Amino acid sequence: MINTSLDLGQMLETKMQYDGERQKVLAQNIASIDVPGYKAQDLVPLDFKNALAAETSKISVMTTSPMHLNGAKAYNQRFLTTDIKNPFEVKSTGNTVVVEEQMMKVTQNATDYQMSTNLYKKIGNLFKEALGLQPS
Fold first, then answer.
1. I need a surface site. Which of 16, 102, 105, 130 has the fewest CB within 10 A?
2. How many domains does the chain have?
3. Residue 100 lies in a domain
4. What residues have CB less than 8 Å from 104, skipping those under 6 apart?
5. Is the pTM of this model over 0.85?
6. Does residue 135 lie within any of the structural domains?
7. Chain CA centroid to CA 106, Å
8. Distance of alpha carbon 48 from alpha carbon 133, whole angstroms
9. Which domain holds residue 21?
10. Nearest of 130, 132, 120, 97 to residue 26 by alpha carbon
Protein backbone atom coordinates (compact mmCIF):
# COMPACT_ATOMS: atom_id res chain seq x y z
CA MET A 1 0.00 0.00 0.00
CA ILE A 2 1.37 3.41 -0.97
CA ASN A 3 0.66 6.46 1.16
CA THR A 4 1.22 9.82 -0.59
CA SER A 5 1.55 13.03 1.35
CA LEU A 6 2.16 15.61 -1.37
CA ASP A 7 0.84 18.88 0.07
CA LEU A 8 0.37 21.46 -2.68
CA GLY A 9 -1.07 23.93 -0.16
CA GLN A 10 2.14 23.80 1.87
CA MET A 11 4.24 24.26 -1.26
CA LEU A 12 2.16 27.30 -2.28
CA GLU A 13 2.51 28.70 1.22
CA THR A 14 6.28 28.31 1.00
CA LYS A 15 6.26 30.05 -2.40
CA MET A 16 4.22 32.95 -1.00
CA GLN A 17 6.62 33.29 1.95
CA TYR A 18 9.52 33.28 -0.52
CA ASP A 19 7.85 35.99 -2.62
CA GLY A 20 7.27 38.08 0.51
CA GLU A 21 10.92 37.81 1.53
CA ARG A 22 12.04 38.59 -2.02
CA GLN A 23 9.87 41.71 -2.01
CA LYS A 24 11.70 42.92 1.11
CA VAL A 25 15.12 42.32 -0.49
CA LEU A 26 14.13 44.10 -3.72
CA ALA A 27 12.66 47.03 -1.76
CA GLN A 28 15.92 47.28 0.21
CA ASN A 29 17.83 47.41 -3.09
CA ILE A 30 15.68 50.27 -4.37
CA ALA A 31 15.91 52.12 -1.05
CA SER A 32 19.73 51.82 -1.19
CA ILE A 33 20.12 53.23 -4.70
CA ASP A 34 22.29 56.15 -3.53
CA VAL A 35 24.32 54.28 -0.89
CA PRO A 36 27.98 54.17 -1.95
CA GLY A 37 29.33 50.64 -2.30
CA TYR A 38 25.93 48.96 -1.89
CA LYS A 39 25.69 45.67 -3.78
CA ALA A 40 22.26 44.75 -5.14
CA GLN A 41 20.97 41.49 -3.69
CA ASP A 42 18.36 38.90 -4.53
CA LEU A 43 17.18 35.63 -3.06
CA VAL A 44 18.49 32.33 -4.32
CA PRO A 45 15.64 30.92 -6.46
CA LEU A 46 13.39 28.28 -4.93
CA ASP A 47 14.14 24.83 -6.23
CA PHE A 48 10.71 23.19 -6.52
CA LYS A 49 12.14 20.31 -8.54
CA ASN A 50 14.11 19.24 -5.46
CA ALA A 51 11.16 20.09 -3.20
CA LEU A 52 8.86 17.90 -5.28
CA ALA A 53 11.42 15.10 -5.36
CA ALA A 54 11.75 15.35 -1.58
CA GLU A 55 7.97 15.26 -1.14
CA THR A 56 7.56 12.26 -3.41
CA SER A 57 10.47 10.53 -1.69
CA LYS A 58 8.35 10.70 1.48
CA ILE A 59 5.94 8.25 -0.12
CA SER A 60 6.04 5.41 2.31
CA VAL A 61 5.61 1.80 1.40
CA MET A 62 4.23 -0.56 3.98
CA THR A 63 7.07 -2.74 5.25
CA THR A 64 6.81 -6.33 6.32
CA SER A 65 9.96 -6.38 8.43
CA PRO A 66 11.49 -3.93 10.91
CA MET A 67 14.74 -4.32 8.94
CA HIS A 68 13.25 -2.54 5.90
CA LEU A 69 14.22 1.07 5.25
CA ASN A 70 11.55 3.68 4.55
CA GLY A 71 13.86 6.01 2.62
CA ALA A 72 12.08 9.22 3.66
CA LYS A 73 14.22 12.31 4.06
CA ALA A 74 13.28 15.87 4.95
CA TYR A 75 13.71 18.76 2.54
CA ASN A 76 14.84 22.04 4.02
CA GLN A 77 14.60 25.05 1.72
CA ARG A 78 16.05 28.26 3.06
CA PHE A 79 15.63 31.67 1.56
CA LEU A 80 19.25 32.58 1.03
CA THR A 81 20.28 36.06 -0.05
CA THR A 82 23.05 36.47 -2.57
CA ASP A 83 24.74 39.40 -4.28
CA ILE A 84 23.72 39.80 -7.92
CA LYS A 85 26.54 38.47 -10.07
CA ASN A 86 27.47 40.38 -13.22
CA PRO A 87 25.39 43.49 -12.52
CA PHE A 88 24.20 45.39 -15.57
CA GLU A 89 25.75 48.61 -14.34
CA VAL A 90 28.19 49.66 -11.60
CA LYS A 91 28.15 53.32 -10.61
CA SER A 92 31.33 55.24 -9.84
CA THR A 93 30.39 54.96 -6.14
CA GLY A 94 30.45 51.15 -6.41
CA ASN A 95 26.66 50.85 -6.13
CA THR A 96 25.23 48.08 -8.36
CA VAL A 97 21.50 48.89 -8.09
CA VAL A 98 19.77 49.52 -11.44
CA VAL A 99 16.27 50.87 -10.78
CA GLU A 100 14.77 49.55 -14.03
CA GLU A 101 16.10 46.06 -13.36
CA GLN A 102 14.81 46.11 -9.77
CA MET A 103 11.37 47.34 -10.84
CA MET A 104 11.11 44.53 -13.41
CA LYS A 105 11.93 42.03 -10.66
CA VAL A 106 9.37 43.63 -8.31
CA THR A 107 6.69 43.37 -11.01
CA GLN A 108 7.52 39.72 -11.75
CA ASN A 109 7.56 38.94 -8.04
CA ALA A 110 4.12 40.55 -7.57
CA THR A 111 2.77 38.51 -10.49
CA ASP A 112 4.20 35.30 -8.99
CA TYR A 113 2.65 36.10 -5.61
CA GLN A 114 -0.75 36.82 -7.18
CA MET A 115 -0.62 33.52 -9.08
CA SER A 116 0.18 31.65 -5.86
CA THR A 117 -2.67 33.30 -3.96
CA ASN A 118 -5.10 32.49 -6.79
CA LEU A 119 -4.03 28.84 -6.76
CA TYR A 120 -4.27 28.75 -2.97
CA LYS A 121 -7.82 30.12 -3.18
CA LYS A 122 -8.75 27.51 -5.79
CA ILE A 123 -7.51 24.72 -3.51
CA GLY A 124 -9.67 26.14 -0.69
CA ASN A 125 -12.68 26.25 -3.02
CA LEU A 126 -12.10 22.62 -4.01
CA PHE A 127 -12.18 21.61 -0.35
CA LYS A 128 -15.33 23.65 0.22
CA GLU A 129 -17.01 22.06 -2.77
CA ALA A 130 -16.00 18.59 -1.58
CA LEU A 131 -17.64 19.37 1.78
CA GLY A 132 -20.80 20.56 0.04
CA LEU A 133 -20.23 24.22 0.91
CA GLN A 134 -20.56 27.16 -1.45
CA PRO A 135 -17.13 28.11 -2.91
CA SER A 136 -16.25 31.79 -2.65
1. 130
2. 1
3. yes
4. none
5. no
6. no
7. 14
8. 32
9. 2-130
10. 97
